[in-house]
């Protein structure tokens, strides 16, 4: 116990170092990839390190690692730090339970099931629904695809793929769909990428036209992946209209809410998920809009028998006590599985559903702040639209890839770029709900001051027309 106590004291010291570093230097000093091993000692050796040397080595790594919790990190679809969720994650590490049986997870099984039950109720799935916690959004999409494949062609579970199944997703959907088609045996060439409208939403009419074409050509339409929160524009596919098509032709409808499915918790923005109760499966990442530590992904299924049919396998050495409802390994892709539910539960328990709603709503409020600033400043060109937390813009016709790279290399702020149709732009995401209005305005301030100090960034070409 004394060793653990001293290790926890070391952890507290290192956490204090990290917090001070975040406050003093919100963007980590960049180390070029080809200079990494020469800059920091990452080597593993035969001899142990003495305590102070060990502490310094970890400290060197901490201060050099990109800081995703600060007010100047806007690069990925996560950010910030929800303290109560972090407490749950740290305790889960100390408990070190695996989530496949009640025998080894105990009350944590009930915690995971409570989150799933409440989520299913909010979606409107009904009494036969259930779900699980996969390793991330990509795995959620993969599990949905496997269930869709098995529902359409049950023999594929035992004899393999023998039918020409085809699947559908939008051109703006997550890149995991192509990988998953390969993993599931359907094949990358059997994905149909449906065009989108001017703001990045799948076109249901073109979806139906493609389905009819495939039926005529002898294919078996199987699965549609709708996206609520596309990775670039943050667009919400029209789930209700897509469900009209999938129900008509008996296709599995999965709604990928990895990015923005958290609007489920907001009365003001839940309308963006209209029709969600008609889907067969729905996934969302609590480590994105809801701010839990990575990773915390949930997939929900309207009829839990599909989870059991596709992922259950008897193992007498594991499932020795309690019923299937408490042995979560019967409906998950993995066997050994870390406890990702506890950190979401500690957050939800501490702030309530109303507190989660405030987290979601604040992100949209911050997005409005950013859009209003851009619209009121003629040096900016806006490419995105309302009801999105992705704010896509260009500044003074500067090449966005060049600008984002320069901001990162000079440790000014971390923000990414994206493309839609023929346009490329800076993509600012307001997913960090711990940010304030001043933090968003400060982002534009530091960007403008950086450009002013670096006039070589100014482009000679005129900005291309905006979407709106």
Based on the model shown, name its key terms.
single chain; 468 residues; disordered C terminus; Aspartate Aminotransferase, domain 1; alpha/beta; seven-stranded mixed β-sheet
Mean model confidence by pLDDT: 93
Largest sheet properties: 7 strands, mixed
Principal-axis shape equals globular
Distance between the termini: 62 Å
Report on this structure.
The protein is an alpha/beta fold and 468 residues long. Helix 1 (2-24) runs parallel beside helix 3 and helix 6 (107-123) runs parallel beside helix 13. Helix content is 42%, strand content 13%. The protein starts with a helix and ends in a 15-residue tail after the last helix. Residues 315-320 and 460-468 have low confidence and may be disordered. The strands form 2 sheets. The protein has a 7-stranded mixed β-sheet, sandwiched between helices. The protein has helices at residues 2-24, 36-39, 51-64, 83-95, 102-105, 107-123, 137-152, 156-159, 176-183, 204-216, 239-249, 305-311, 341-375, 400-409, 437-453, and strands spanning 73-74, 130-132, 165-170, 191-194, 220-227, 252-257, 281-285, 297-301, 380-382, 390-395, 414-420, 423-429. The protein has 3 domains: 2-67; 89-347, Aspartate Aminotransferase, domain 2, CATH 3.40.640; 352-457, Aspartate Aminotransferase, domain 1 (Alpha-Beta Complex). Helix 9 (176-183) links the parallel strand 3 and strand 4. It is built from 15 helices and 12 strands.
């Amino acid at each position: 116990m004394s060793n653990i106590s001293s290790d926890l004291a070391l952890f507290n010291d290192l956490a204090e170092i990290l917090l001070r570093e975040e406050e003093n230097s919100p963007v980590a000093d960049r180390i070029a990839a080809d200079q990494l091993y020469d800059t920091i000692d990452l080597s593993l050796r035969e001899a142990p390190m003495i305590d102070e040397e060990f502490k310094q080595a970890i400290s060197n790594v901490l201060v050099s690692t990109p800081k995703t919790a600060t007010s100047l990190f806007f690069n990925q679809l996560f950010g910030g730090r929800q303290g109560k969720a972090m407490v749950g994650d740290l305790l889960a590490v100390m408990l070190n339970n695996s989530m496949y049986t009640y025998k080894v997870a105990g009350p944590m099984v009930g915690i995971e099931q409570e989150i799933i039950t409440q989520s299913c109720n909010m979606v409107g799935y009904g009494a036969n629904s259930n779900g699980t916690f996969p390793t991330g959004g990509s795995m959620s999409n993969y599990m949905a695809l496997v269930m869709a494949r098995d529902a359409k062609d049950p023999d594929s579970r035992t004899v393999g793929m023998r039918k020409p199944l085809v699947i559908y997703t939008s051109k703006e959907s997550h890149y995991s769909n192509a990988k998953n088609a390969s993993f599931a045996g359907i094949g990358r060439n059997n994905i149909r990428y449906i065009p989108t409208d001017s703001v990045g939403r799948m076109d249901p009419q073109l979806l139906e036209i493609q389905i009819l074409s495939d039926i005529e050509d002898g294919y078996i339409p199987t699965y549609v992946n709708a996206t609520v929160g596309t990775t670039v524009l943050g667009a919400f596919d029209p789930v209700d209209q897509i469900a009209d098509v999938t129900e008509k032709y008996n296709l599995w409808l999965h709604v990928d809410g990895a990015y923005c499915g958290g609007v489920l918790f907001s009365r003001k923005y839940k309308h963006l998920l209209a029709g969600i109760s008609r889907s067969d499966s729905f996934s969302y990442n609590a480590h994105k809009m809801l701010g839990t530590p990575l990773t915390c992904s949930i997939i929900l299924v309207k009829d839990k028998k599909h989870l059991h049919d596709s992922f259950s396998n008897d193992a007498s050495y594991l499932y020795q006590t309690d019923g299937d409802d408490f042995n979560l390994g019967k409906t998950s892709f993995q066997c050994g599985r870390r406890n990702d539910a506890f950190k979401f539960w500690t957050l939800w328990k501490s702030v309530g559903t109303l507190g989660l709603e405030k987290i979601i709503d604040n992100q949209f409020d911050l997005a409005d702040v950013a859009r209003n600033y851009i619209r009121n400043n003629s040096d900016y060109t806006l490419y995105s639209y309302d009801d999105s937390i992705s704010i896509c813009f260009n500044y003074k016709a500067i090449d966005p890839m060049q600008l984002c790279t320069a901001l990162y290399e000079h440790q000014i702020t971390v923000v990414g770029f994206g493309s839609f149709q023929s346009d490329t732009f800076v993509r600012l995401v307001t997913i960090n709900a711990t940010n304030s209005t001043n933090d968003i305005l400060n982002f534009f301030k530091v960007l403008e001051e950086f450009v002013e100090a670096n006039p070589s960034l100014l482009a000679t070409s005129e900005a291309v027309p905006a979407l709106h």
